[in-house]
Amino acid sequence: MKRKLSSSTDESTESFARKSNICAFHTSHFSNHDSEDDEKLIAISGIRKKLLSWYDSSKRTLPWRTLASESSSDNNQRGYGIWISEVMLQQTQVATVIDYYNRWMGSWPTVTDLASANLDSINRLWSGLGYYSRAKRLLEGAVKVVNEFDGLFPSTVEGLRKIPGVGQYTACAVASIAYNCPVGVVDGNVVRVLTRLKAIGKDSSSKEVMDLLWRVANELVDPERPGDFNQSLMELGATICTPKNPSCKVCPLKDECAALKEISSLHQYDIEDCHLCIRDYDKAKGVMNYPVKLKKTKVRDAVSETFNRLLANLYEFFSILSKDETRNSSVNELYRVLRDDAGIECSSLQYIGEVFHQFSHISQTYKVWSCTSLAEEEDDLSPKLKAGNYQSFLLMDTAEDVQSSSISTAMKKVLRLYQKQSMEPPKKQKRITSFFTTK
């Protein structure tokens, strides 16, 4: 495929242009937004007006947006509320977050209230939301704000970055939405919108592309309404410019979208020398060719690492990530883990059934087995359970104890399956089961 090449040196694509020429198609979409050229400034102004007009008429009513728009709310409370919402929204759908956010703000309405809370109560409220390390970071952040900032929430990007767990995106989101700082944001939705808007065909997770996207976001952000503009970009990605089946016909930026123009473009491509052209363009996919992502490798290791983040600091049943689908192999591995890692000698393992659970964007099927320990008393259990690989060990007397403890929704499903299959009613059991925390 061939496109006419250009030797553009615009600052917006400076790092790309230095490495190689870029085609005329991309040059036209990466003009220097800081330039005084009237035509370019008009184009940026047009994008701002279209997005904000669409946002004003189409935005979803969300509790944190209501807080941000209330003139009666003080800056400190606004910053705290937006911070909580942004952390909850990481890797989690908006519809799921709403109830958690409302209950959180009801339990800890101010940063001072949160700083005095304990992690167990926070984890109980967070249960089911996934990525539990976020909850711990929120508590650590609140303690830092109260102890080191005199309870005053930072209002600048630099100040916000000093809070535990706050990265560039969260700092810019809170600064722009709560404090009207003119800074752009780049999250998953914005990556999708901007890579399609500019037809960026390079791996969207690469440092070069991320730096470019942040540059574009900062150039586009409306200086008068930065918070609303950033939310409009994210809203567009969540509702119109979706990963699958985007609604291009009703998109407010359809006339500016390079990926949409590319579908009917008569230009030919010369991808060998253009640093931004997509390498494997599928015309049937259209705008869904973007963003470009590298194929994932080492899936099992990635899943295991993700689960460590999903279930951090929560109790769970002894579990293994199965490397072999055969039942005998799984049973042997379970026996080994219980014996060698936990020091538990089992008289038998009984297969109970399967439990399916959706962790945010990961689907997981648990094959559940019950274990009968040879230990007759609690004191006979191996000391390995209270040391080594296990941060803490918990014994439960009733099902109510389990349900009120810091365990994930998936583990509660496993317990319900066990109770259903158990011969004895749960309340009459001396001990339901044992848990250990993940690292």
TrEMBL record:
Q: Which InterPro entries match?
A: DNA_glycosylase (IPR011257), Endonuclease-III-like_CS2 (IPR004036), Endonuclease3_FeS-loop_motif (IPR003651), HhH-GPD_domain (IPR003265), HhH_base_excis_C (IPR023170), HhH_motif (IPR000445), MIG/MutY (IPR044298), NUDIX_hydrolase-like_dom_sf (IPR015797)
Q: One GO CC annotation, please?
A: nucleus
Annotated HhH-GPD domain ranges read 88-239
Q: Name the Gene Ontology biological process terms.
A: base-excision repair; mismatch repair
Taxonomy-wise, where does this protein's organism fall, top ranks first?
Eukaryota, Metazoa, Ecdysozoa, Arthropoda, Crustacea
Q: What's its catalytic activity?
A: Hydrolyzes free adenine bases from 7,8-dihydro-8-oxoguanine:adenine mismatched double-stranded DNA, leaving an apurinic site
Tell me which species this is from.
Answer: Lepeophtheirus salmonis
Name of the protein? Adenine DNA glycosylase
Molecular function terms in GO for this entry? 4 iron, 4 sulfur cluster binding; 8-oxo-7,8-dihydroguanine DNA N-glycosylase activity; adenine/guanine mispair binding; metal ion binding; oxidized purine DNA binding; purine-specific mismatch base pair DNA N-glycosylase activity
**Entry keyword set:** 4Fe-4S, DNA damage, DNA repair, Glycosidase, Hydrolase, Iron, Iron-sulfur, Metal-binding
What's the family? Belongs to the Nth/MutY family.
What cofactors does the UniProt entry give for this protein?
A: [4Fe-4S] cluster
